[in-house]
Amino acid sequence: MFDTLQDRLQSAFKNLRGKGRLSEADIDAVAREIRVALLDADVAVPVVREFIAKVKERSLGAEVSQALNPAQQVVKIVNDELIEILGGETRRIQYAKNGPTVIMLAGLQGAGKTTLAGKLALWLKEQGKSPMLVAADLQRPNAVTQLQVVGQQAGVTVFAPEPGNGVGDPVQVARAGVAEAQRTLHDVVVVDTAGRLGIDAELMQQAADIRAAVNPDEVLFVIDAMIGQDAVVTAQAFLEGVDFTGVVLTKLDGDARGGAALSVRSITGRPIMFASTGEKLKDFDVFHPDRMAGRILDMGDMLTLIEQAEKAFDADQAAKDAEKLMGGSFTLDDFLKQMEAISKMGSMSKIVGLLPGMGQYKDQLANFDDREVDKIKAIILSMTPAERTNPKIIDGSRRARISRGSGTKVSDVNGLVDRFFEARKMMQQMAKGGGIPGMPGMPGLPGAGKRAGAKQKPQQKKKGKRVSGNPAKRAAAASGAAPKADGANAFGFPAQGAQDFELPKELKDLL
Question: What does the pLDDT look like over 295-310, one tens digit per residue?
Answer without folding.
Answer: 777 665 556 666 666 6
